[in-house]
Amino acid sequence: MNFNMNMRKFLLTSALAFSATAAFAAENQAEVVTQQKSLLEKLDSLNAAVLGLKINGTAKAGALASFSSSDQYAENSPTQENQAFTDVNLRLTARPSSETMIDVQLRLHKDWQNAYDENNNPIIGHWFSYDGTILNKHVDFNLGYMRIGYTPLTIYTPQTEILQEPEIFAEKRREALAQRNLDTTSRRLLQGLNVAYQSGNVGPVDNITAQLTGARLRNTAKKLDQVFFDFDFADRYLLGARVGADAYGAHLGVNYVNLMDRKLTARSKKIATTDTVYYDKNMVFSADLAFDSKKILPELPVSFGVNGEFAMSNWKVDRDYMGKVPETTYSLTQKNIDGKEVIYIVKSTPKVDARINEDYREQDGKSIYANLFVKGNVSGLDFKAEAGYLQTDSSFWSELASSPVYTGRATILNSNAFYSNSINDVILGTFGASSLENLYYSVYNSTTLNANNLMTSENLVNALSSEKESTNMFARLDNNYKNGHFYRNGYTGTTSKKLEVEKDYLRDIDPSVSMSLPFGLATPDRKGIMAKADANWEDKIFFNGRVSVLTQTYADYGKWTLAGLPVIQENKYTEFAFGLGADVGALAALDRQILIQGSFSQASESAYLKRQATRIVAGLTADVWGPIGVLAGFQQYKKVFDNGGVPLVGGTEEAPFIVNVNDATERLIMAGVRVKLAPLSYLSLQYGMLTNELQYSYNTGVIAGADKVSITKNILSADVTVNF
Amino acid sequence: MNMKMKRLLIALLSASVAASASAVADNQKALQAKADSANAKRGVEIGGSIRAVAQRSSFKTDQDPTGINKFPDVERNEFVSADLNFGFRPYEFVRANVTMRLGGGMQEYFAAAAKTLEAKWLNVEGNIGKNFYWVIGDFRQELTPLTIYNPGIDIMYEPTIFARKRHMAEKEQLLEGNKRNLQGVNLQFRQEIDPMIGEIRAEAFFARVNRVSVLDFSGAEGNILPKDSIPGFATSLASNTDKWLVGGNIELLPMQKNVFVGVTPMFIFDNENTKSYVYRHPLARDAKPDDFNQNDDEINSYVQQPINPDVGPQNTLVISGRAGADVAGLMQNKNLTLDLVAEYAMSINKVKETNYVTDPLTNVTLPVVSEEKNNGSAILANLNVGYKEDNKWSAGLALDFIRNDEKWFNNLAQSPSFFAQRILNSDKDGETVKYGVNSPLYSTFDALYNYSPKFSPVGKSMGTNDDRFMDGQRESYNIAPYNKNSWGSNVYSVEQLSLINLMMDPALQLALPNGLATANRMGVRSLIKGDWQGMVEAQALVSIFNQVKSELEGVVDKVSYMEFGGGAKVDVAKIAGLSKALEVSGSYKHSESKTDLVGGASGTFKSDFINAGLSVQFLPRLGFTAGFQMINSDYGTYKDPYSTFVGADVPLMKSKQMHWMVGFDYVVADNAWLAINYGMINVTNDYNTTALGESTRNLPDYFNSAKKGDGMTGTYQHKFSQSIFEASINVEF
Question: How many CB atoms neighbour CB A193 within 10 A?
Fold first, then answer.
């Protein structure tokens, strides 16, 4: 599991995780450690052995006020937005036997008000699964919601990695992800069935694994006149399988992933002549190999090894549209010829409306990466260093490995604010609010459904191509009786099809996940080297370093014609980052944690938008006195677009204008106090200041110039969280 | 184990495996986390209630022989709602409480499968030691009638059969007595300093009373009058801003808690920096659904509008001080009741008004915002005098004196818990349902006792395709489910409260529609109560109030109110020494208001309310209950000129309402019963139809002004009845 929420710990990726073996504990500590572990195992088994129903969960109640100011706000724009809520997540677990467990999670959310009846504020079921370890612990299964990871090129979730991310930020990010049912691991949230077999020792083989995964990725829209954000015309399925074997510290695996749109679900509906329905199929086959010397040379304090993967992909799209096709018909015709009644057959081929299917695009691609690593523990210093090579074709595509959960570009706080001129509206509407706001803040509301938040479509046939509202919408209002739950969140668990990624030209503009690998290791068209190192000295000093140089050879900027960029150009990415943390409390032999952290990272590219992103992070997490702890964090993120800026289009279709965002400077300062009220119950008081300044140039056709938009948000929050 | 915990543990465990020197410390942390986790899971307490009603109400009138009104005569409400209360970590210093409501209907043809599952009540609470208590989330609050209070309806010796129905309707809205349901933070501190210096009680509260919320103007809920727009009043409950309540309460109870002083500052304000806007199609408030035409570019466009143009920003400071003494307590006389509490409260209400002024030079019209400060005050003095001989008799007098001036305003105390709605057979008068008391088929008893939490109304057109559905919309609501209930804990703005007061039921809310905090009232209310050996109890009530200042200067000179009445309850079983309960009760109350006009003329409204009840148990747990109620009202000649805004187009002269119900019950415990009842509501309303205007919204749609007897005579008598057959279950556990 990739706990990148807190990189000071020594971490391993999920797919290729080799568990390290015995620690080098000092002699006198060994016994204590053994006793502790035994106790922990007992507690775990005690917990697991409780049959029957358990109800646990979290309740959080509090308020968050965001005070925003900007010279660019309209005079009558609201400058404050408050969230005041009680939010309860209930987790019901039932164990019909000690081997299996049913897990149901419910979310109850109320926004405080008492001026009108809020009826039918629904309880959202946001996790349903049946999981177990059966057949003498040889088979694990998950049915329903699950988090699955194969390898970085097959099923994987690229995450944002911020070195030495202070706890005050990490906690906010976890919370935002959790609202979307996501976590910080590299596993992917799926719904379906997963079965994994582990043989255990078989002769010289340590383990043989086999895994089968089936999931539905999208569900076709059943009701078209009231559309919603997850609108799609076809069901999309995943079928994944992998086998592998471990022996002598080596691992060999074969992985297969197949994603396809089910045409029949789309074809059961009529489409309009303006509609085109695309069917996407994506298949990836990979082999992964790994070796860790620890198994065969356990006595050495240092071990070394390798891990790598080779993958081949096929991506194919065909499409349906309405066209005219000749249809042969025969009819009996009666005629009087020379006084005789003659009946004969006439053949005709009129053109009739029909659904036509044609192949649209198909690409095969390959990707390979290999990493060498060395790790160990010397004189209390835990370390791991690795370096590797990556090469991926521009035609390689692996959807389930290329969909990061971070999307950004949303306005989370003060979304009710508006600007005095349309240029700023366009910038904030398309470029979005700051990355830091998207990374760390989230809003969850239970709101009455009304004409303004119900999305309708004009009619049942061309919901795909018509943006008009339904004429029936005002006849279908709900008497203010129903509430819906709404997110403002920079994260999503939905995977993106390649065509969707290509169409959204701002998709990879925000380098928050990674500038060089915005879609993770499976990012198409990359070649180069990467290295990283992590070290931990007795949990007192922590170090992380990252460096990568990658090249994109055939970057297709066709979608960027607007920016005047060459369609094909080589782009070279250089990224480096390092982080340092120190637990001053531990260093000074105090009985409390005083953790100081900091990191610096920079990413740049040589072509395309000539972006440069620089991040500076600093933080403090300290136990002050008894139940009181202090948390603080600072982060500055600067993005420069040095090749004319990011072009955004505003105005109307008849009179468009162009705005180019040239650079963005974001800053987030947070400080807070956390008080432990009781076991697993906390009072948290926090202050945050978020600034976002965007420099831009514009040309409306009438006037051209340069300006900036600058927004400051002061955020106060107070809440109590109770775990039960 | 919760996810967070699990993550933490896994993190700690993996660290302990991979790391070395810190293994002991890490394991120690993991063990501590496990101990915390175990401590955090100390139990769950489950309680709740189940309420089920199966009800058939049949509407009948002889005045529509040709069937002009084609809507269903029969309404069936069949529903079950189960509240499950979970108390997590019930015996710890920090707790979490959750109430889930599961609702099921039996004839929701709209959405038969859509059973509701709602989050009704959520909070976390705790205490630090024995002196300090805190709660965040949903909480209930009641301080004094002038500060925080949910004024209700008092019905003297209300028959059990009806009281149960009202209990269920109020519980459906989660009401408890005169407590206001709020959402926010409440901190309470109590400390006994010394028996003589006494106990100090300090409290702070912070609640969001409304939030920036866009609501449809056409909805049955979220609107006082859907689709209507009345200058000076707010018909919608949507909010432009967040509205907050911040306040505190400090009380000191010296002299063995027999003397009492307290002060409550409260600030209720609209957070103007949150004032938000909405983008709507430019359609009139009363637009029909088919007025929306997406091919009309103007209508299809979006225009920035205020969310609720009718409400201004509120900025109200309320300060209340009070003092009291339990003289009987000081005298240490246990048989005597003698206590006096006096409260003075003032409200400083800043009102913003926007006027548009045209500059004569530039001819440009600009908004000019002026702010006015309205200072109001209220006085409430309460005296209780009484004497009792244990197990023999008791007698007492409770006296309330109030003087609230016309500018006194505190919506946390004045917003009534009862706002009369049309409930049963509402489809029959669908267009005018929203006018409540002025709807032609309204009766006080229907509004008081019935409810339907997820009612699916029928449309005007019975077709099922989209066009018929669009044509089928009513003026009072959209054709979609809504909650029919007259009870609530809503906090209204000044513009909303003024409108609600125009629609109060004079038979119930004449003198004090907003409770003891009603503005513009001065007078006395006295209640004498006597009890004889717990067998016979009797009460007598007299109250006299006057308006402090005319609300319609130049038109109305003076308005005075008077109420008197009395009642008794006799426990026959106790008198006759029967082993099973047998109780009879009855009451009579006369209410009257007199409006003296400037010209010398006057108008009087008079109303008599009679209650009679019987409750008999004839087998263990099995009993019989019966109730009778009657209200006779004479509206006199004076008509409030504002009443036409709320549907009272035609003057109502007299109204006679009768309500009876009989039934069997099976009582398991207090608040746990099964009842099967049958009853009727009969209403006769006399209208003055001599000068009919274009609009006759308070007359039924089958009224025909051209027909003799139906207006030709100058009066129209409208008679109708509702037969109600119902089975109900109420179990609180």
Answer: 15
pLDDT tens, position by position, A293-311 = 999 999 999 999 999 999 9
SS3 A338: coil
Q: Which of B6, B98, B456, B476 to mutate to test the interface with A (most CBs of A within 10 A)?
A: B98
d(CA A106, CA A181): 11
Q: Which residue has the tokens 């299809």?
A: B300
**What is the rounded CA–CA span in Å between residue B310 and residue B520?**
23
Cα(B146)–Cα(A159) distance, integer angstroms: 56
Residue A479 to residue B16, Cβ atoms within 8 A: no
* B410: helix, strand or coil: coil
Cβ contact A380–B242 (<8 Å): no
pLDDT per position as a tens digit, B624-669: 999 999 999 999 988 888 999 999 999 999 999 999 999 999 998 8
Burial string for B592-618 (b: 16+ CB within 10 Å, else e) reads bbbbbbeeeebbebbbbbbbbbbbbbe
Q: How many CB pairs under 8 A join A and B?
A: 355
Residues in chain B, how many? Answer: 733
* Chain B nearest-CA residue for A22: B17
Q: What is the mean pLDDT of each run of 10 residues along chain A (724 residues)?
A: 31 28 41 75 67 88 97 95 96 91 96 90 93 95 97 96 97 96 95 97 95 93 63 88 97 97 86 87 98 94 96 97 92 90 92 93 97 95 97 95 94 94 90 94 95 77 67 88 92 92 86 94 96 96 98 70 67 96 95 96 93 97 95 97 88 86 96 93 97 94 92 97 92
- Nearest CB neighbour to A61, from listed B13, B36, B123: B123
Q: Give counts: helices (H), strands (E), chain A.
A: 7, 29
A480 to B223: CB separation less than 8 angstroms, yes or no: yes
Rg (CA), chain B: 29
Q: Does residue A315 contact residue A260 with C-beta atoms inside 8 Å?
A: no
Indicate the range of B88-97, B263-272, B538-547, B719-728 predicted with least confidence: B88-97
Q: Looking at CA atoms only, how far is residue A384 from chain B in angstroms? A: 11
Tens digit of each residue's pLDDT (9 = 90 or more) over A46-73: 666 566 888 889 999 999 999 999 999 9
Contact A115 B469 (CB under 8 A): no
Distance of CA B505 to the CA centre of its chain: 13
What ipTM did this prediction achieve?
0.91
Annotate A13-33 with b (16+ C-beta within 10 A) or e (fewer): bbbbebebeebbbeeebeeeb
Q: Does A531 touch chain B (CB under 8 A)?
A: no
Q: Is residue B459 a contact partner of residue B480, using CB atoms and an 8 Å limit?
A: no
Please give, one letter per residue, the 3-state secondary structure of A610-627. Answer: CEEEEEEEEEEEEEEECC
Give the one of B212, B214, B482 whose C-beta lies nearest to A481's C-beta: B482
Distance CA B164, CA B666 (A): 13
Pull the structure tokens for residue B601.
């003329």
> Which H or E run includes B502?
helix B494-502
Three-state secondary structure call for residue B247:
strand
CB contact under 8 A, B17 and A79: no
